[in-house]
Design brief:
Blueprint (H helix, E strand, L loop, with lengths): L3 H13 L3 E4 L3 H10 L5 E6 L6 H9 L2 E7 L8 E6 L6 E3 L3 H8 L5 E6 L5 H6 L3 E5 L4 H4 L4 E2 L5 E2 L2 E6 L2 H11 L12 E5 L7 H10 L5 E4 L8 H9 L6 E7 L10 H4 L3 H8 L14 E7 L6 E7 L2 H13 L6 H7 L1
Parallel strand pairs: 2-3, 2-6, 11-12, 11-13
Antiparallel strand pairs: 1-3, 4-5, 6-10, 7-10, 7-14, 8-9, 13-15, 14-15
Length: about 350
Amino acid sequence: MKNISELALMTFKGIKSKTVEKIFPEIIIKAENLKKENKNCYYVGIKNTNVISIEFIKKLEKLGLLHHTLDYMSKGGRAIDINFQNPITGRLMTGSSSATAINVFLGINDIGIGTDGGGSVLAPALSVNLYGFVSNLFDKNNMIRFKKESTDGITFSPSIGILSKNIDNLEYVISNILIERDLESKNDIGVKIANPIIQEQNNFYEQIKEDLEKYSLGNVSLSYKTLDRKFMIEELKGFDFDNNILITFEGPIDFYEYGDSIMGHYSEYTKRKQALAHKYYLKVINMLNLSAFAIPSSDLSLGALIICKSELDKIRFSLEIAKSIKFKRSELEENYFN
């Protein structure tokens, strides 16, 4: 648990940061009171979008998740953010919960709250080696009011997603907002892992197989047809989520090229460039009303998704799987940016 001087430093970082639209330094008084009572206290950044309700934010605050910053989002909810750079690569930051991801990565906040329509939480999370989780169960009655259409003509409602540097913070939010800590996971459910699509993903694939050797892993073949979201939607509709969870691979996100449909729509050449962003099934999780964890690897901007049906016992089991996959952040990365 951070002390008051560490929390003050987080606020100082936030005041100086261009990714913070508004900061609430007065919450340090609430933080001090929580610490005196030996209660949990986390600094939270929230994406500046009108779809996240005040009621949801108040629910967070009751759990010691204090609203620290209001974070910029990419203009128009775009899949890249032309205003901010990825702190690691120096390339354009992945959107649209771009600033929220950066503010967690840089240690301004412990937890970020964003919204995900077609990958807007999961992609930024993995682009800076964060954990992410999205589910349409968060604030569900409110979120279904905000239907919109994607650039490729798919109608959907957004979901709330959370980002953090560690899985324990995600577990705290999930266990207090969605599911009870003592809820049993669905241990009779299968675990299917899709083969990696590019060479860069092979090492993480082998690591996951080793980390999850106590589970009965099965293989599944997927197309990873990144430029055809409708095809990937139909593909996942054919997967048996009633009886299985699915592990797929993503990235390196926006490392070689940008996965942005505005850039990619012009010609076959620009589409080929767009495909090299290696954004796959994270773009359709929310559109299928599924839930998913984004799990970073020890490599840069590369990770896996643990995808499940949006049912509480399946989310609990997916969390158990997520905690079983080892992740050690680069010591150089940690020292340089913090």
